[in-house]
Amino acid sequence: MTTITICATKGGVGKTTVTANLGGYLADYGARVLIIDADVQPTLSSYYGLNDPPASNGLTHLIQSATTADAISHTNISRLDLIYSDDPEGELQHWIARTPDGRFRIRRALENLQDDYDFIFIDTQGAVGGLQDAAIIAADLLVSPITPEMLSAREFLRGTVQMLERLGDLRYLGFERPPLIGVLNRMDKTRDAQDIAGQIHELATAHPELDIHIAATAIPATVAYRKAASIQTPVHRVESKRSGPTPSALETMQNLVQNLGIDIEKITREEEA
Ligand SMILES: Nc1ncnc2c1ncn2[C@@H]1O[C@H](COP(=O)(O)OP(=O)(O)OP(=O)(O)O)[C@@H](O)[C@H]1O
Ligand SMILES: [Mg+2]
Fold first, then answer.
1. What is the pLDDT of residues 46-97, one digit of tens each?
2. Nearest atom of ligand 1 to the alpha carbon of 12
3. Residue 104 clears pLDDT 80, i.e. is over it
4. How many CB atoms lie within 10 A of CB 127?
């Protein structure tokens, strides 16, 4: 089981889009996937339709009881399950802050799912706080979408480093911060976007001590992502063929999965065996 947390200090960069579509892609290709909505605004929770009535519990129960019992809902995508967000007032941030082991609760709850899932994705809110820390502590890998806007490269690096530094002292508790992969999202062909993408690659390479890598694949800005969201379908199903030079969403997901070091064929082979 690999747990991947999608995090960024900025809002609106594509965290939920990436979580939903990577999850949907891997499930369609045979992996057992759980997506967890750890954002106060429950966008991921309703990204896909549900097969059955929702589970009686969601994120609050997962954190407060450190268990996923009665908190797993089944989406209408085969093999794709969901833990929904049920914290509209943002109470969990406070609860985690005043609970001594609050930041370790997600990690502990997920330990029991080792045999149930190949991948767990945790979507977070674009900010820093106890809930985001808890999602990072639970992760084997962090993925940060970056949109190529003016100043975005430096902001990305500064914000990301600050976010990870918050957790530095946890090394005394045996916590090693997971590697982070930045993924350029909503890339267009403008000179600006290309320049900023280049700067981000350079900055990451110039600071190997940060252990931040930028995925070779960028996600293009295309209408397919919005369309897929509005019809509650994984984007690779909506755009499986390319028209023109821009890679199709299917190709983009395939490449991205490879960039994240995921061997999907190995997983499907194991599942069949
Ligand atoms: N590659 C893309 N091409 C076109 N539109 C995109 C792309 N990625 C995301 N979007 C659109 O951008 C908007 C923001 O994306 P999304 O909700 O995934 O961001 P977020 O980081 O989760 O935001 P928040 O911080 O509010 O949770 C959405 O309307 C989404 O459909
Ligand atoms: Mg979101």
1. 999 998 999 999 999 999 999 999 999 999 999 999 999 999 999 999 999 9
2. 23
3. yes
4. 16
Residue 100 is predicted with a pLDDT of 96
Q: Would the pLDDT of 150 be above 80? A: no
How many Å lie between the centroid of ligand 2 and the Cα of residue 143?
A: 13
What is the helix (H) or strand (E) element at residue 225, kind and residue range? helix 223-230
Q: How many CB atoms lie within 10 A of CB 190?
A: 11
Picking from 227, 221, 212, 213, the residue whose alpha carbon sits closest to that of residue 252 is: 221
Q: CA of 24: how far to CAs of 14, 106, 263, in Å?
A: 15, 22, 16
Looking at the CA of residue 229, tell me the nearest atom of ligand 1.
31
* Structure token pair of residue 237: 């199903």
Domains with residue ranges and CATH for the chain: 2-272 (3.40.50.300)
Mutate to test the pocket of ligand 1, among 5, 16, 152 (most ligand atoms within 8 A of CB): 16
